[in-house]
Prior knowledge:
Blueprint: E1 19-22, E2 29-31, H1 33-41, H2 43-51, H3 57-65, H4 70-80, H5 85-93, E3 99-101, H6 103-114, E4 119-123, H7 127-136, E5 145-148, H8 149-152, H9 160-168, E6 178-182, H10 185-193, E7 197-200, H11 204-213
Parallel strand pairs: 1-4, 1-6, 4-5, 6-7
Antiparallel strand pairs: 2-3
Amino acid sequence: MDLDVDLDDEQFAPAPADAVVFDLGNVLIRWVPQDAVAAVLGAQKAREFVEHPDFDFAAWNLRNDAGRSIADALAFVREQHPGLEGSAQAYVDNFEAALSPIEESVAVLRELHEAGVPLVALTNWSAELFQKAVDRYDFLDVFEEIVVSGEEGVVKPDPEIWEVLAERTEHIGGLEDFLFIDDSIANVQSAVEAGLDAIQFTGPQDLRADLIARGYNLKPVA
């Protein structure tokens, strides 16, 4: 018997995850820490603060993201690296200058929101400094939940962060129902090990293409 069946390609398109979980820094919000220092002390001091051989800026910042207070962070610099105290203070006082929106990524976020996709943010960020981003960017309002490492006391890619995410988002679904987006391959790998689908962010156009391939209804890549 001959079957004349019109197969709609959409019937076989992949089903998108129930929710999308965004990292924030360098995915939706560009973070250039030296710009905060340069705004007050100039480019040379800014470069010295971020690249100083005896001061590990990345480690110092990660401790802040893991829950250390800004007061304690500044005290550490004052006690251990007194020559950088002014730069550390400038970084904190002018933190907004280190931030700028990645507009093409924000456009993707807004399209997902308009399509009714549940949205969550999971970010490594100092709890105190994150408030400056909240005050600055209204697109953060689209998230149903924002998990901030500095509030939870644990940072990506520590596996414990996924337990926190699961608890905060159980009203949306399980981790296996989520798609995670992050610029760090270590964080992406950690997410996959925890049961999430994950995409490494390399740029807004690639992100848009990856989401379309996963079945999300977005405008095509230009």
